[in-house]
Structure formats: C-alpha cells, structure tokens
Amino acid sequence: DADVTQTPRNRITKTGKRIMLECSQTKGHDRMYWYRQDPGLGLRLIYYSFDVKDINKGEISDGYSVSRQAQAKFSLSLESAIPNQTALYFCATSDAAPGQGSTDTQYFGPGTRLTVL
Amino acid sequence: RKEVEQDPGPFNVPEGATVAFNCTYSNSASQSFFWYRQDCRKEPKLLMSVYSSGNEDGRFTAQLNRASQYISLLIRDSKLSDSATYLCVVNLNTDKLIFGTGTRLQVFP
After folding, report:
1. Contact A107, A5 (CB under 8 A)
2. Does the beta-carbon distance from B87 to A98 stay under 8 Å?
3. Do A23 and A48 touch, CB atoms closer than 8 A?
4. Cβ partners under 8 Å of residue A39, min gap 6
5. B67: which residues sit within 8 A by CB, 6+ positions away?
6. Which chain A residue lies closest to B9 (C-alpha atoms)?
7. Cβ neighbours for A57, distance < 8 A, ≥ 6 positions apart
8. How far is B11 from chain A (nearest CA, A)?
9. Is A1 on the interface with B (CB under 8 A)?
10. Sequence-distant (≥ 6) Cβ neighbours of residue A73 within 8 angstroms
11. In this complex, which of B41, B87, B95 lies closest to A97 when CB atoms are compared?
12. Which residues contact B58 (CB under 8 A, 6 or more apart)?
C-alpha cells in the first residue's frame, strides 16, 4: 500500500462548487504539505502543517483552506472553485524541516488532477 | 528573477550518452539542495541530495558551486528509463522547499 494517498485522483467540477481534496499518510510524519503544479510554473506551496495544531500559509493560499484532522490526515478545500484553480495537486509529508533533522526528503502522494469548468 | 531556474529542455539524447543539467538559485542563504525526479503524470521523488563536496550515486553525480550559486546533475550511460523531468530543489533553511520548473530528459534508442 502507498504511504501517502490522495482522493480523489481525478475530479471535474464547475465554477462556484466547493471541493475537498483529501490526503492520508501512514508514514507517521508530523509535517504535511499541499502543492499545486501548473505547466511552466513548477510546484508551488499552498499550505503546510507541522502538527495537528499548526497550520501555515504557503506561497499561494488565497482561495484555499486546509484542515489537519489528525496527524495522518490533511485536507485541502476550495470553497468556491474557479477555472484558474485547474491544476495537478500534490500532498507531501516529511519527518523534519528541510535542511534539518534526519532526512530532507518530502514524500509525495500520487496527485489529484482537478479541472474546474 | 525566479528563485530557482532550470533550462526546461527537452534534452533528447541517445542511450549511452552522458547528459548534464544545470540549475541556478538566487538566494545565497540557501542551505540544502536536491534533485527530484518526476515521471510524466506522476509524483516527484527524491533522486539525490547535493552536498558541497559533490556526491555520486551510481550513474548520477551531483555538484554544488556555492560561489556561483549553481547546481548540476550529470547522468552517465543514459538509459531509456532515465526519461523523466528532473527538478532542482532548494531550501533556505526555512520550513519550505523551492522547486524549479524542471528539465525534461528524453532518452531514445
């Protein structure tokens, strides 16, 4: 079984709809991240969380919200989806801050391809 | 100026060739450096960290030049399975990684 899972894997929705993307991990990591990837722009950080009580905005948080329901679960919501939120969304986990601690690796889920019409 | 810049490619090389990718970063305070690999429509995965002294993992060699703020990845004896996008990643010793947009490699028979 995959260590980081995302649901749904694909979603097509309409402008104005509320969408939730879910991420679960079995790696026991404290740190979780949500990114979006667009052609030519690379991965951009939306939100990140270092534990259940800690939520931080990333580079492009406007239009998004998150919830850290448990150490293993981190969900991303689009309250009112718009077409420019069409992208590939990745959840990632790590067990230490990049550059610190025992590993610098972020482990990514398989991604959710979201299309907003 | 982008924080991390890479030549997007594509680099089209025959099997067995040696290919090198370069990456520059803008913030001299950057502390940690990585190469991730991303297959088409898949998630990024860590390929290797990049250390100041340079490091090698099989056919892959990564080097860091702090003075020039430059990172490189060398792939020797390219295989078809090396075809992917290679992401240069930098950390400023903060909580976040900065990803380059990636360099696409296509190895042909």
Report:
1. no
2. no
3. no
4. none
5. none
6. A40
7. A47
8. 16
9. no
10. A22, A23, A24, A25
11. B95
12. none
Structure confidence by residue, pLDDT tens digits, B50-90: 988 889 999 999 999 999 999 999 999 999 999 999 999 99
Q: Which residues of B touch A88 (CB under 8 A)?
A: 41
Cβ–Cβ below 8 Å for A105 and B87: no
**Å from B83 to nearest chain A CA?**
18
Which residues does B72 contact at the CB level (< 8 Å), separation at least 6? Answer: B20, B21, B22, B23, B62, B63, B65
Distance CA A107, CA B31 (A): 20
Per-residue pLDDT of chain A (117 residues; tens, 9 = 90+): 569 999 999 999 999 999 999 999 999 999 999 999 998 888 999 999 988 999 999 999 999 999 999 999 999 999 999 999 999 999 999 886 555 544 468 899 999 999 999
Nearest CA in chain A to B30: A99
Contacts with B, A 23-62, CB within 8 Å: 35, 40-45, 48, 50, 56, 58
SS3 content of chain B, % helix, strand, coil (to 5): 5, 55, 40
